[in-house]
Amino acid sequence: MTVMEQRDAYRPTPPPAWQPRTDPAPLLPDAEPYRVLGTDAAAKADARLLHQLYAEVVRGRRYNAQATALTKQGRLAVYPSSTGQEACEVAAALVLEERDWLFPSYRDTLAAVARGLDPVQALTLLRGDWHTGYDPREHRTAPLCTPLATQLPHAVGLAHAARLKGDDVVALAMVGDGGSSEGDFHEALNFAAVWQAPVVFLVQNNGFAISVPLAKQTAAPSLAHKAVGYGMPGRLVDGNDAVAVHEVLAEAVRHAREGGGPTLVEAVTYRMEAHTNADDATRYRADAEVDAWRDHDPILLLERELTQRGLLDEAGMRAVRAEAEAMAADLRERMNQDPVLDPMDLFGHVYAEQTTQLREQAAQLRAELDAESDGADR
Ligand SMILES: Cc1ncc(C[n+]2csc(CCOP(=O)(O)OP(=O)(O)O)c2C)c(N)n1
Ligand SMILES: [Mg+2]
User: Fold this and answer.
1) pLDDT tens digit string along 272-299?
2) 271 is catalytic
3) Distance between CA atoms of residues 237 and 48, nearest Å
C-alpha cells in the first residue's frame, strides 16, 4: 500500500488565503471630483492666491487666443489650445519650486509660460523654426512633448536620479486622457511606485483624444482609479477649479518631496476648442456639449468667488485684462518678426559626432547656399 492509498495519510492543506500586500482603500480616489470654488471651503482660500490664479488664468486665456490667431496669420505652424484648461496649466506651474522640474505635453505651453518661460520662446517648437527653443536645464522645463506619454518615463528617471543623488527635486509630468492608454504611461507609473520616486502625474482629462471620446479610450471607473493598480494614491479633482487643482497638486508635491512617493491626479476638465487649429471639432461633438461647460469656466469660477468676497470689482477686472492684452500685443509684435535662421543648424544637434552621410549632406547644402548667395551678389 502506498502512502497515497492510506486513508487520511496525505491531506494537502490549501494555501493561506490571499491578502493584498497593502491596503488599497487609502489609495482610492473620491467618488466625485474635489471642488473648492462655489463650496463652503472657498471662504478659507487665500486672497493672494485667488488673485494670482485669476490673473494667470486670464492671461492664459488671452495667450491661447493670440497663439491661435497667429496660426491663421501663418506665423505659427500649429497650436493646440488649452482654452478651458487654464486652471490646470497655471496650477501645475505655481505648485513647483524653481529647483523642481516640469514635463509638459504639446498642449501645455501655458504651464511653461506660467513657470516663467518667455512667451515667444515657448512657441519656438510650434513655429517649426528650431528645436526646443529654450534651454530645458535653465528653466527646469522639459521640451513640450509631442509623442504621447513619452515625457512620463523621462520625469520618473529624472526624479529617481535626483533622489539617489540626494537632490531635493520633484518632477511634475502632464499628460492627456488619451496618453493614459500608452505603454509609456504604464511603465512610468509602475517604476515610479516601485521606486517611490518623487513624481506627480497630472492627467488632464479634457474628454477627448482628438476625436476619440474618453468612453472609447478606457473602461476604468476613472483615470484616477488606475493609480491603485500601481500602488500609489489617485486623486480626482475638478480641473476647472483653479483653487482645488492647486491644493491637490500642492499636497501631492509635498508628499513626493517628503519621500512619500508618487501620486496620480486626474483633473476633470474640457477642451473648449478643437484639438488644434487644424482640426474641426464639429465633426465629432455637438455644440450643446461644449455650451454645457461654459457655465463652469475656470475664469468665471474665480471671478464669482473673488467678487462675492469683495476682492475684485470691475476696475480690478479691467486691470487684469489690460495686463493680458499688453502681453498679447508683445507676443504678436515679436512673432511677426521673421526669425534669423541658419539652415546649417539642421546638422548641428543630431549626433555628437556626425556620420559620413550627414557630413556629405551638410557639404551639399553649404554649396547650395553659397551658390545662392553668389547669385544674389551678382
Ligand atoms: C505616440 C503617439 N501616438 C499618436 C500620436 C498622435 N496624437 C497626437 S495628439 C493625440 C491625442 C491625444 O489625446 P490626449 O492624450 O487626450 O491629449 P489632448 O490632446 O486631449 O491634450 C494623438 C493620438 C502621438 N502624438 N504620439
Ligand atoms: Mg484629451
Assistant:
1) 999 999 999 999 999 999 999 999 999 9
2) yes
3) 22
CB atoms within 10 A of CB 36: 23
Cα distance between residue 220 and residue 185, in whole Å: 15
**Residue ranges lining ligand 1, Cβ < 6 Å:** 107, 146-148, 176-179, 206, 208-210, 271, 275
Instruction: Give the mutation target among 148, 184, 272 for probing the ligand 1 site: most ligand atoms within 8 A of CB.
Output: 148
Residues at Cβ < 5 Å from ligand 2 ion: 176-177, 206, 209
Q: For residues 60 and 55, give the distance between their C-alpha atoms in angstroms, rounded to a whole number.
A: 9
For the chain, the first-to-last Cα distance in angstroms comes to 110
Does 351 qualify as catalytic in the annotation? no
| Residues 316-359: tens digit of each pLDDT | 999 999 999 999 999 999 999 988 888 898 888 778 898 999 99
Q: Which amino acid is at 120?
A: V
Place domain 25-335 in its CATH homologous superfamily.
Thiamin diphosphate (ThDP)-binding fold, Pyr/PP domains (3.40.50.970)
What residues does each domain of the chain span?
A: 25-335, 343-377
Q: Which one-letter DSSP state was computed for residue 12?
A: P
Backbone angles phi, psi at 19, to 5 degrees: -125, 140
Grid cell in block for residue 157: 528617471
Active site residue 275: yes
107, 160, 255, 275: the active-site residue: 275
CA 371 – CA 373 distance, rounded (Å) = 6
Taking the centre of ligand 2 as the mean of its atom positions, its distance from the CA of residue 1, in whole angstroms, is 69
- What is the number of alpha carbons within 13 Å of residue 95 lying toward its C-beta? 30
- The model's pTM is 0.92
